[in-house]
Structure formats: C-alpha cells, structure tokens
Design brief:
Shape: globular
Structural class: mainly beta
Distance between the termini: 42 Å
Radius of gyration: 24 Å
Oligomer: single chain
Number of helices: 3
Helix content: under 10%
Length: about 675
C-alpha cells in the first residue's frame, strides 16, 4: 500500500484527442511530475491541452480549471493571467515552470513575476501539474494563487510536420522529430510563426522557438539534457481609452502610438536526473537561462509630456542560474506507509533593468538604469503518512531566504536587502467513501517585491517606486476544504471552498506599466470542476469559480480590489478517435470586474466560443479547421481604468475605461503529417 491515494489524480490516459498535431510519447525522464492531494489540484495530459482551439499558445493553459489567459498588448508580450479572484498581471502570484525551470522573473522591468510563455510549443507538452493555493512545499515565490508545472515530451511516437494558415496574416510551421541515439533518444523541434492580427497597425509578429533534448533511462532512473532558444519581435496595439473610440478619433482596432511594441529572446540549458535506491527516490535538476526584453509602451498618451507623448522603453537583460535537489525517503511508521521528502532549491538572477523616456522608440532621456544581483535559497520538508485506508496526512514546512544588491544610477537608491520567511504546509485527506474523498489544506505562502523598491529612498522622476520602502517578502495565508467524487462512471467532479489572505496586494499601475505594492486583501470563494469521459471518443468539461475579493483595511477610497474577477466559468465538449472525425467546442466566460476601489467604474463581461473540426486519415495526415470567436463577440480581452490624456484634453487628463478588444472571428486551417 502506498502513501499516495488511489484517487489522487494520476495522469489521465485515453479519451479523445481533437488536434491535428497530437503525438503522444514518453515524458518525465529524469523526474516525473508528482501526484497531488487537494480538491483543487490535478494533472492534465498533453492531448487534453492540445484539444483546445486557441488564439495564442498560452491559452492552452486554460485547461487548468478557473484560469484565464489573455493579452492586453502585442503577441510577443507575456500573457495576462486571472485566477481565484486575482488579476495576476503577467504572473505576480501564479508560479509557472517548464521542465523544472522557473518562468517568473523577479525585479523585472515590466512587472514583478513577469512570465513569458509565448515560446511554448503546445504539441510538445506531455503533462501539466497544477496546484491552487499556497499549500505545497515545493511552491515558493509567486505561488500564492497557484502554480503550473509543464513537462515537455522526451520522445515522440511519430515525427510531425505541421503547417497552419489563417485570417489576419497568421502562418505557422512546426516540426518535431525524435530518434534513438546511443542508449537514449534525441528529440528536436522547431516552431515558427508570423501574425498581423486585425489591428490598424499590424502586429507584425515574427517568432521562432526551438528545442533539442537528449534523454536516457526511465522516469525513476534516468536523465535528460535540454536546450531551448527563442526570439520574437512585434508591434503592439496596446489598450486604448474608450472615449477615443466613441469620439471617432481611432477605430476599435486602432492605436494612439503606432511604434509601441518590442523584441525579446530567451536561451536556456537545463538538465534533470532521477535515481532510486533502497531508501527511496532522488531527483536533481539544474538550469541556466539568458533572456532579454525591450518593451516600448505608451499607456497614458500625452498625460506626462503633452508634446512628445508618454512612450517609455523598459529594458530587462538577465542571466538566471539555479536548481533543485530532493530525496523522498520511502518507509513505514509502525507498519503504516510513510514518505519523508526533503528538498533544497536555489536561484540567482544577475539583472540589468532600465527605464527610459522615448518617442517613436528613439531615446529622449533616462529615468533609471540599475544593476541587480538577487539570490534565494529554500529548504523544505514534508511528512506524508497513510494512517488507515481512509486517512492520509501531510505535514511540512518551507523556509526561504533572499539576498540582493542594487547598484543604481541614482546612488541614493543603491543598497543591499535581506529577508526570510518560514511557512507551514498542512494537508488532510479522508476517504474514499462512496467514491468520494474529502480534503482539508492549510499553508503559508509569499511573493517577493521588486528589490529596487526595497532599497530605494527617492523617486527617480517616476512613480515606479514609492518613497517609502517596500517589504522584500510579503506573506500570504491560505485555507481550503473540498471533495472529489467519482461515483458516476467516467465523471470526476470536485468542489473546493477557499480563502486567501495577503499582507499586501501587487496592483497594475497604468502610468508606469508595472506592478506596485498596495493594501492587504482577503479573498474567499468556491470552485466547482467537472470532467466527464462519456465514452472513449466523447468528453465533457464544465468549471465555475466565484470569488469575493476585498481590501481588508479601511480606506475612504473603497475596498474593492481593482480588476479582481468575481465569476469565471468555462465549458467544453471534445470528440474524436485516432482515425476519422474529431472536434472541439469551448466556451469561456470572464465576468464583470471593479476597475477602481469604490466600484464606480466596472468592466463588461466577456463570453467567447472557439470551435474546431477535423479529420484524421489512415496515412497519418490530419486536417483541422479552427474558428476563433465563433459569435464575433465585440467584448474586451482586458479592461483597466486610469487617467490618460488625449490631444486637446485638460492637462490633468481624464479617468476612463481603457481596453484591449477581443479579435473578431478568425479561421485557421492546419494540415499535419505524422511519419
């Protein structure tokens, strides 16, 4: 008898795969994704992920129940995330990982926790593990709302060549191949894409993403080494003031600054190793990442500079190195199965981060140009015991320590900072009774703040920093009770009630394009998740999340958390067999949100349908047609409210809804060959 429950969400197999490029294969060599014990945690296969018709790669992660992945700028910029009543900006409180590498960037030019997943190749995904809440010892910084761990395939059953064409200049070419090499396997992949979008000024996205991996052995006794390279450039139609469209100054897909946009690159080398012995399992991973981002934005138009406009250049260049080592001791306690997991994590970021005033991407003046060295280390331990057939517990803790040095071009803002935090992690599982398990989880979490705000003492002619120093690490506390039921054959339904308290909320600031520390908050809500495998060729999904998010202190400005969603819902149907017809229909509802603290300005709801129909031939060729935004909804991808100034308006500007529209109906045709 093992400690892990029979119902603790093993990686699902089988079911329809409604995608022309679904490959299947082996994943997890050198360190498989681990099982989870929570009503709101789970594992997703690559086939499930790829059955979603999506506008952009990151949207496949909406297979995680309750997660919204959207965009408020050009396609090369990191996505915007929403989960459990959080506007997570570009990753502030959702921790994202790929093959053990952290994707969230700390002390970032555009926003704390910035996580760019535009280089993701969805067809390469083997499995995804997700957690909600700060209950799990492996989760540290940025994981208070949740974490998502993505694993690429180590080898594929068949090689793939795929091409797509679609509306608004969309073109994509993808190839994936693997072959035996020595005692292991070599996998290579390359993905290239261009896209203009419906914008008056074309997005002009040009990007390429490549992967090479060598793997050997098995999930428990093996290793893999992976190299990745990615580059992209684009022009951005950022969010626009609603009054500019109503007045006819620009159209719905127009822009007030046609030179917004940017370029980015990412190169990484990572490795994973796993081995078993008489005591249990050892896993080790390590990585080094080099990334660069140049981002040009003008969110407030002519508010700060009525002559040249408010465009600014955010520069982020960094090298990241780190890794993790853990050992799971497998044994027993007075005859009861027991696991003790002990692990260490480390990460170091060497960063150049800059902010400059520009016009048409040309330098006008500098605001800041800083060098930052930020290092963290963590130790965690977890004890898991199966006391009886119906009782399991986990008891653990996690200790994190941070150290940083800032060398600023404003000497008064240079300095050193240190901080640490220790958090308990507790879990209780009861059952199964009548095919139902009950869960209770508690844990502490945190997010780090931009360390420049920790050391800064003066405002370098921008509102990027508060003159009052920010705390380095901000604690959160989460509680959850829930259940998972499988009493109906093929149907898994989960219900979770949760609460999360934060000592300080990070909020998006329109005038700087960054996230800044704000007031303490409390969220409580309910999640209902359903996955129904009706037959081997037909599956249904339905999810609902309702959250109450409020500032927990008193302030005359109000207690609503801006951009915090109250209701998120989704539904889907997928059908298909290995040969013949396949298809998918997805619905996503993103409810209205308060945009300022007193709730006097609110966003509108967004309801979108995406569909897919395709056919798989016996010769390995598949053809599919995606129709995105089936109903041609005129809703918004994202909405804010802040002060901006258009030509001729008062010097102090006007507060208004500022939105990025959903793209109109678009079709994309994909032809793929497996050989």
């Amino acid at each position: 008898m093992s400690v892990t429950a029979e119902g603790a969400a093993p990686i699902p197999t089988g079911g329809p795969a409604a995608n022309a490029g679904t490959l299947g294969g082996v994943t997890g060599i050198g360190g498989p994704l681990l099982t989870v014990d929570s009503a709101s945690a789970g594992l997703i296969t690559g086939a499930q992920l790829n059955s979603r018709p999506v506008t952009r790669p990151g949207e496949v992660l909406e297979e995680v129940p309750g997660l919204i992945v959207t965009q408020h700028s050009g396609e090369g910029k990191a996505n915007q995330f929403f989960l459990r009543g959080f506007n997570l900006d570009h990753g502030t409180d959702i921790a994202l990982f790929l093959d053990g590498m952290p994707l969230n960037m700390r002390t970032h030019a555009h926003g704390q926790g910035y996580a760019d997943i535009n280089f993701l190749i969805p067809e390469l995904v083997g499995a995804v593990e997700f957690h909600k809440g700060p209950y799990f010892v492996r989760d540290g910084d940025f994981a208070s709302a949740g974490s998502v761990r993505i694993d690429y395939l180590d080898s594929v059953q068949k090689n793939l060549a795929l091409t797509s064409i679609g509306a608004f200049g969309y073109k994509r070419a993808l190839s994936i191949a693997s072959a035996p090499l020595g005692e292991g396997n070599l996998l290579v992949a390359a993905d290239a894409q261009v896209y203009d979008g419906p914008w008056t000024v074309p997005d002009a996205l040009r990007k390429i993403s490549t992967v090479a991996r060598y793997s050997q052995g098995t999930a428990l006794d093996g290793f893999s080494v992976t190299g990745m390279a990615y580059a992209a450039r684009w022009t951005a139609t950022n969010q626009i003031p609603e009054r500019a469209v109503v007045s006819g100054l620009i159209g719905r897909y127009g822009t007030l600054n046609p030179t917004d946009g940017g370029d980015t690159s990412r190169f990484s080398l990572s490795g994973r190793f796993s081995a078993t012995d008489d005591t249990g399992i050892t896993r080790v991973s390590a990585y080094v990442i080099r990334s660069q981002l140049n981002l040009f934005n003008d969110f407030t138009d002519f508010l700060n500079d009525p002559v040249n406009g408010d465009q600014f250049h955010q520069l982020d260049k960094r090298i990241i190195g780190g890794g993790e080592a853990l050992h799971i001791f497998q044994g027993d306690l007075f005859g009861m199965p027991m696991e003790n997991e002990i692990g260490v994590q480390t990460r170091t970021d060497s960063i150049r981060v800059g902010l400059f005033n520009t016009m048409n991407r040309q330098y006008r003046s500098g605001v800041l140009d800083d060098r930052v060295l930020e290092t963290s280390g963590a130790f965690y331990a977890d004890n898991r015991v199966r006391w009886t057939d119906w009782l399991r517990t986990s008891l653990g803790f996690r200790a994190d320590g941070y150290s940083a040095r800032v060398v600023s071009d404003t000497p008064a803002n240079s300095g050193r900072a240190r901080d640490g935090i220790v958090n308990p992690k507790l879990g209780l599982t009861l059952g199964p009774w009548f095919d139902t398990e009950l869960y209770a989880n508690y844990g502490g979490g945190f997010h780090s703040n931009d360390v420049r705000g920790v050391t800064a003492t003066i405002d370098p002619t921008s509102s990027l920093f508060n003159t009052t120093r920010s705390p380095f690490l901000v604690p959160s506390t989460g509680y959850e009770i829930g259940l998972r039921n499988r009493s109906i054959a093929g149907l898994t339904t989960s219900l979770a009630l949760f609460r999360l308290d934060f000592a300080s909320e990070n909020l998006f600031q329109g005038d700087t394009g960054t996230t800044e520390p704000s007031r303490p908050t409390r969220r409580f809500g309910v999640e209902w998740t359903n996955r129904y495998a009706v037959t081997p060729w037909l599956s249904l999904e339905g999810d609902l999340t309702i959250t109450n998010a409020r500032f927990s202190d008193d302030d005359p400005v109000g207690n609503r958390v801006p951009e915090a969603p109250t209701t998120i819902a989704s539904a889907g149907v997928t059908f298909g067999e290995p040969l013949g017809w396949f298809g998918s229909l997805r619905f996503r509802y993103f409810g209205p949100r308060p945009l300022i603290e007193d709730n006097s300005i609110r966003s509108r709801q967004t309801a979108l349908f995406n569909g897919r129909i395709g056919y798989a031939f016996e010769n390995g060729v598949s053809v599919s047609l995606d129709v995105l935004n089936l109903t041609n909804s005129k809703s918004d991808q994202i909405t804010y409210a802040y002060v901006s100034r258009l030509p001729g308006e008062p010097a102090e500007g006007l507060i208004d809804r500022v939105f990025h529209p959903v793209e109109p109906t678009a079709v994309r045709l994909t032809i793929a060959g497996r050989f």
